């Protein structure tokens, strides 16, 4: 079943037509990736689906329910969580405080404690640094914190915007392994990523965006084999 359906979304920034009739689906249990050059509209797409930007027209359905006019907060309570580009951890707060903020809509204290333990098991470095200010962490550790914070809302659908941006190659592999693990444990993932080859390796399906439109789609493996994708995005 389609967990998320995006139907003919148009978004304008003043006179700029940023997204043009964007339509795609994310099925339950999948990793779906949006790839494309900088400025193609990938981040705007995520921001629109998570309620941070209003579409001019079109609709967004979560498990068949129209959420186009729901607030970002309502969407979090429906099970959508968004890890923004650039991580956006709260630098002056501790690692633990950042993680607790991820659960701000929840009231189940025991569940929160369980999930905190789960995040620490997945990211041991966060437990080691839980009393440290988040701003003192390395880029890779901040990315882990941003993902951990998103997991604290117990999402069914997780949006990741450029999770590998600015990370050393070794850490990129680690972050992608983590994304696969999160997916294997039952979270559906929509991934925006400049590192097309890494994204296509782990994605069930992929959509290619150019200047605000989706121009191509297929399985991750199909797009890996496509000559035009290789030339444009895989440096081959």
Structure description:
The chain is of the alpha/beta class. It has a single domain, classed as Rossmann fold (3-Layer(aba) Sandwich). It is 38% helix and 27% strand. The strands form 2 sheets. The protein has a 6-stranded mixed β-sheet, sandwiched between helices. Strand 4 and strand 5 form a beta hairpin. The mean pLDDT is 93.
Tally of helical runs = 10
Strand line-up across the major sheet: 6-7-8-3-9-10
Q: Structural class, please?
A: alpha/beta
How many domain regions?
1
Largest sheet: 6 strands, mixed
What is the string of SSEs from the N terminus onward?
EEEHEEHEHHHHEHEHEEHH
What is the gist of this entry?
38% of the residues lie in helices and 27% in strands. The protein has 10 helices and 10 strands.
Descriptors:
globular, Rossmann fold, 6-stranded mixed beta sheet, alpha/beta
List the helices and strands and how they pair.
Elements (H helix, E strand, L loop, with lengths): L1 E12 L2 E12 L3 E5 L6 H8 L7 E6 L2 E2 L5 H6 L2 E4 L11 H7 L7 H14 L1 H5 L10 H13 L5 E5 L7 H16 L3 E5 L3 H7 L2 E6 L2 E7 H6 L1 H7 L3
């Amino acid at each position: 079943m389609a967990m998320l359906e995006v139907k003919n979304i148009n978004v304008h920034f003043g006179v700029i037509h940023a997204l043009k009739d964007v339509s795609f689906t994310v099925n339950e249990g999948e990793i779906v990736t949006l790839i494309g050059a900088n400025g193609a509209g990938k981040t705007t797409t995520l921001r629109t689906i998570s309620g941070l930007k209003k579409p001019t027209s079109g609709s967004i359905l979560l498990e068949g329910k129209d959420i186009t006019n729901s607030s970002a907060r309502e969407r979090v309570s429906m099970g959508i969580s968004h890890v923004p580009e650039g991580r956006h951890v709260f630098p002056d707060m501790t690692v633990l405080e950042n993680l607790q903020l991820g659960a701000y809509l929840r009231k189940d204290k025991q569940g929160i404690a369980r999930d905190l333990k789960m995040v620490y098991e997945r990211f041991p470095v966060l437990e080691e640094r839980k009393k440290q200010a988040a701003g003192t962490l390395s880029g890779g550790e901040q990315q882990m914190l941003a993902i951990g914070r998103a997991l604290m809302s117990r999402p069914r659908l997780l949006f990741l915007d450029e999770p590998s941006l600015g990370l050393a190659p070794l850490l990129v592999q680690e972050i992608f392994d983590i994304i696969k693990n999160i997916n294997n444990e039952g979270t559906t993932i929509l991934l925006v990523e400049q590192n097309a080859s890494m994204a296509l390796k782990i994605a069930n399906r992929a959509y290619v965006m150019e200047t605000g439109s989706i121009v191509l789609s297929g399985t991750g493996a199909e797009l890996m084999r496509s000559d035009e994708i290789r030339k444009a995005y895989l440096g081959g």
